[in-house]
Design goal:
The complex is a heterodimer of chains A (253) and B (461).
Chain A lengths: L11 H5 L5 H8 L6 H9 L3 H13 L4 H21 L5 H22 L8 E6 L7 H12 L3 E4 L6 H11 L3 E5 L8 H11 L6 E4 L5 H4 L5 E3 L5 H10 L4 H8 L3
Parallel strand pairs in A: 1-2, 1-3, 3-4, 4-5
Chain B lengths: L19 E7 L5 E4 L3 E6 L9 H22 L3 E7 L2 H5 L1 H22 L2 E7 L15 H16 L3 E3 L6 H8 L4 H30 L2 E4 L3 H11 L9 H20 L13 H8 L4 E3 L21 E3 L7 E2 L2 E2 H21 L3 H10 L6 H6 L1 H13 L4 H17 L10 H15 L5 H15 L5 H4 L3
Parallel strand pairs in B: 3-4, 3-9, 4-5, 5-6, 6-7, 8-9
Antiparallel strand pairs in B: 1-2, 10-11
Helix pairs in contact in B: 1-3, 1-10, 3-4, 4-6, 5-6, 5-7, 6-8, 6-14, 6-16, 7-8, 8-9, 8-14, 9-13, 10-11, 13-14, 14-15
Classes of the chains: A alpha/beta (253), B alpha/beta (461).
Chain lengths: 253, 461
């Protein structure tokens, strides 16, 4: 028994696929000047060695390492992020590109002897009692790729430690992920403790068990349905959006 | 030294059907799994606030168990099985899990005595061997885990299961980088090595307590890949890569049976049809009736060879139709009733094939897991069944070949899926046939690249 499946299902991903390949679309976005172009290509292809080689060549000819970050690495990564947001490339490409970019940033920082200026600082953690951290890993990588300084507290992080880190780092946003319903309750406690301390930063929460209904029950919570929402939320904060506006935009249900 | 499978117990794919397995198992309260009928396996999670104390948790499980049983007899279902997946407190404090198993079993006994309803109870301690910083597969946490198995077996759990985490530290790194050798290493080699250890010990406990060492799942890895891959329009992982992870998981989940598991395999092991083709042991599956927990792209197809039919998990709370466990257990039971009607009327294979065809071409994952192709993957695994590396690589290669040979007018893949498949094929073709070389090269590579990978502490190579 077999069937012509066209009457019972539609592969919308095939229907919607762009005619251009990701490589062709990226090529249209590469900067024309060197070394920015070579570095952008290497980042897009996730080739760490090529990024480092191009940077070393530029540094040897007297380029300023901080300017290399701002003028070559970040714009190169920006192409990758844009293509990901457009649904043209997939997460592993972003992760490999981010690896390559971060390797380049490390090299430039080492040469500059100072840390480059990030768009903002964000503290990330996985709820106490929860060791499922691949979602947090993705969130942290996408935030770094978008130019944010990420303080990654890891997984199974006690509430006290989250509060202490927020007080110490003074971030623009806190993120929390949880896979289990029994661990996500820590988010409420974090919310209460932050408010007690007079800290009112957006607390982006997401992960397997977490849903919007739960997150709206505490004041600082903003629900992030997708990992990619984290960087968009941070950008929205930078553009002046407050808690109410973030909830309005990111609470889709 | 465990005996590996080098041949399949099923001699033809068409022999595989829902409700029947070659080696059925029987619970204390008369439930036979794989003996000719499908039974609902109801899964649930306590409300978040129930986790604050042992008393609250025990009370929560008492209520929800009673709810499920009450609904089963109200609607007239002949059998039901329950699965309690532990929240971490229940495994870290073995007496908690033990008491909950006892409370649940007592309720099942009362219903069994009163109404004759056949019942089964599975307990699935959490794999607590993952510390905050890294996996600690061997050591004090392992001992606590074994104590938990002892306690739930003593408390009355018929079926003992776990979702082991072995290999996950490398998988989490590899899956985000399309690293095919990394999938083979993490799932096929590290995961199977860990399972070979743990399932021998679970079997000893099961035998000592007169219980059944049921089965494992590659939830930690293949389901991670499946969930990251998501729906058709998600852009986080090619579905062709997710199904490669899944078939390697077939080789991994098999290792549990080789070390003593007898079935029913765990519900979320979408690789279970592959495994059933090799072991002949009963399996639980989840799909269209687990939408309370997650979405997948093969909700009907995975019913094809199930012996238990599960809802994966639902938080205990009120719905219009009763409590959530009552609603979902009712739906599961009606699903099972339909499958059993098909069996009773001689239409089982027709219904199986209809279920399969509704999803077979929906996605590369369903195409490979359709029982005819799953059987071929099983054949590829047992071809070099004694070599954990080669059998995993064989499964991956067979998967790629089957997808490439598919009728492109029926299984329509995007350029992206095809490119990912081509890259995977190239990666597999460049891999060695020598397990020792692969293992030593991978050991060095991932020790250097994955900070939390501690092979010496975790794997008895």
């Amino acid at each position: 028994m077999d069937i012509d499946p066209s009457k019972i299902l539609v592969r919308y991903n095939v229907q919607k696929e762009k005619a251009q390949t990701p490589e062709e679309m990226a090529a249209e976005m590469y900067p024309s000047a060197e070394p920015a172009r070579t570095i952008a290509v290497a980042i897009f292809e996730g080739e760490e060695d090529d990024v480092v080689e191009a940077l070393e060549k530029a540094l040897a000819s007297g380029a300023d390492p901080v300017k290399l970050i701002d003028d070559t690495l970040m714009p190169g990564m920006d192409i990758v992020t844009k293509l990901y947001d457009q649904g043209v490339i997939f997460l592993p490409n972003v992760m490999m590109s981010a690896d390559a970019m971060l390797e380049g940033i490390d090299l430039c920082k080492e040469k500059a002897g100072t840390s480059a200026k990030a768009k903002g600082k964000i503290v990330c953690h996985v709820a106490e009692g929860d060791v499922h951290d691949i979602g947090k890993t993705i969130v942290a990588a996408l935030l770094r790729a978008a130019g944010y300084d990420v303080v990654d507290l890891g997984r199974d992080v006690p509430v006290d430690e989250v509060i202490a880190a927020v007080k110490k780092e003074n971030p623009m946003m806190l993120t929390g992920t949880a896979l289990m319903t029994t661990t996500m309750y820590a988010f409420k406690e974090i919310n209460d403790r932050l408010l007690e301390s007079g800290i009112k930063i957006p607390f982006q929460c997401g992960g397997g068990a977490v849903n919007q209904d739960f997150v709206v029950t505490y004041e600082l919570g903003v629900y992030g349905e997708e990992a990619a929402d984290a960087a968009k939320m941070a950008d929205a904060i930078l553009s002046g959006k407050g808690l109410a506006q973030l909830k309005e935009h990111f609470h889709k249900h | 030294m465990v005996k590996r499978y080098t041949s399949q117990e099923y001699k033809a794919a068409d022999d595989m059907i829902f409700g029947k397995s070659i080696y059925p198992v029987k619970s204390e309260l008369g439930l036979e799994v794989g003996a000719g009928y499908v039974t609902a396996e109801v899964n649930y999670a306590p409300r978040p606030e129930a986790g604050v104390s042992k008393e609250k948790l025990v009370s929560e499980y008492r209520r929800l168990t009673t709810d499920i049983m009450a609904r089963a007899v109200q609607i007239g279902f002949p059998a039901v099985s329950l699965e309690t997946e532990h929240v971490e407190q229940m495994t870290n404090n073995p007496s908690w899990g033990g008491e909950i198993a006892h409370v649940q079993k007592t309720i099942l006994e009362e219903y069994h005595e009163e109404y004759g309803i056949k019942c089964g109870l599975r307990h699935t301690p959490g794999d607590i061997r993952e510390n905050r910083d890294l996996l600690a597969l061997i050591g004090p946490k392992y001992d606590t885990l074994m104590e938990s198995f002892e306690a739930v077996a003593e408390g009355g759990a018929d079926f003992l299961s776990i979702e082991t985490m072995g290999g996950k530290e490398v998988l989490d790194y590899a899956i985000l980088r399309n690293d095919i050798p990394g999938l083979v290493y993490s799932i096929g080699c590290l995961g199977s090595t860990d399972m070979t250890m743990i399932w021998q010990d679970i079997r000893k406990i099961a035998d000592k307590k007169g219980r059944i060492a049921a089965g494992d799942t590659d939830c930690a890895q293949a389901n991670t890949a499946m969930f990251i891959a998501g729906g058709l329009l998600d852009k986080n992982l090619a579905h062709t890569i997710a199904i490669i992870a899944r078939v390697i998981a077939g080789a991994r989940t098999l290792a549990g049976y080789e070390a003593g598991a007898q079935g029913p395999g765990k519900d979320c092991g979408y690789e279970n049809t592959i495994v059933k083709s090799i072991t002949g042991c009963p399996i639980s599956q989840e799909g269209k009736t687990s939408t309370c927990a997650h979405a997948d792209v093969m909700g009907n197809l995975v019913m094809q060879c199930c012996d238990l039919w599960s809802n994966e998990s639902v938080e205990y709370h009120g719905e219009f139709g009763g409590t959530s466990v009552q609603c979902w257990s009712e739906t599961l039971n009606y699903d099972a009733a339909l499958l059993n009607v098909a069996t009773e009327t001689g239409n089982a294979k027709l219904l199986r094939d209809m279920l399969v065809l509704s999803d077979k071409y929906r996605d590369p994952q369903g195409y490979i897991l359709a029982y005819d192709n799953a059987y071929k993957i099983g054949s590829a695994i047992v071809k070099d069944g004694n070599d954990l590396y080669l059998r995993s690589k064989n499964a991956a290669l067979a998967c790629v070949d089957i997808l490439n040979a598919a009728d492109s007018k029926k299984l329509v893949m995007s350029k992206f899926e095809k490119n990912a498949l081509a890259n995977a094929k190239a990666a597999l073709d460049s891999m060695t046939d020598e397990a020792d070389n692969f293992m030593s090269d991978s050991l060095e590579k991932y020790k250097a690249e994955v900070a939390v990978f501690r092979p010496d502490d975790n794997y008895k190579f």
